[in-house]
Amino acid sequence: YDFECAQLNPNMTVPFLEVEDKVITDSRLIADHLFQKYPGAGDRKAISEGQKESVIAFVDTIAEWDEAVWCFTHIGEQASMANIPRYMKLHQQALLANQKGSELPLVDGMSMEDVYLKKIAGLRYFESMLGSDPGAEDYQRNNEIVYEQIWAKANELLATRQSQDFLFGAELTTADALFVPFLYRIGFVAKVNLEENFQQYPRVRQYWQQVQATKEAKCVTAYGKQFVAKVMLQACLPCKIASFKCGGRKYAALPAEMNRKIEAFIDEKRKGHLSK
């Protein structure tokens, strides 16, 4: 959340890709850039077999799924607790950006202060998904529909393949590069959901068992709960969260004008979700 990273990637999310004098901060756009400019062996084979549009269509379906909202609603209160150190840092940075003012460069036409306030608004909005925010229920329902479509489409693709194949054949493709993190995230957040879907789609279970043995998949699967726990302990996050819950630490107070901006950003995000 430091100024350098926020300037490079105002979304303050991962992944993001700096390439050819530009920064791509959306997973779908990163996948498209790599698919078009640097297709792997599996992509090249799929394209040569006339499956380019099918690969793109599957990637588009995964991109429609709002991973953050799904994870947040399934984790529940623990997700809110994990946001405590984020809020602490973001509040500090927003106030510091306000003090520095014009010393800091604009980012996509926004002041650095507004970049941080927009990030705070995003976190608050996701937390509202656990409550009675207008439209939250409908948005979550639509997101679950997309979730089921991903499973059904993957099963449909795998049903046309040999038992040892991946989504589009014997080689991994961009479609697999997005589907593997999808499956891993579900298992990480809600293992019971993963097992329920595996029971419904046993061919996807077989795929998951096979793909985890590849070195490419380990770029995702190597970062499990033990890794997360180690990072949290190194940053002393449990201590910071406990101190906050006991009243020992507090968020730096934001002035009224900043809070008005945050509410405006939340309203903007809500309207964007309701329009989908």
Textual characterization of the structure:
By secondary structure, the chain is an all-alpha fold. Helix content is 68%, strand content 2%. It has a two-stranded antiparallel ribbon. Strand 1 and strand 2 form a beta hairpin.
The share of residues in extended strands comes to: under 5%
Query: Oligomerization state of this entry?
Result: single chain
Number of helices: 16
* Span between termini: 29 Å
Instruction: Give the helices and strands as they follow along the chain.
Output: HEEHHHHHHHHHHHHHHH
Q: Compute the gyration radius: what is it?
A: 21 Å
Q: Could you list the spans in which at least 5 consecutive residues all have pLDDT below 50?
A: none
Mean pLDDT: 88
Q: Share of helix among residues?
A: 55-70%
Task: Please outline the major beta sheet.
Answer: 2 strands, antiparallel
Which strand order does the major sheet show?
1-2
Instruction: Count the E strands.
Output: 2
Global structural class? mainly alpha
Shape: globular
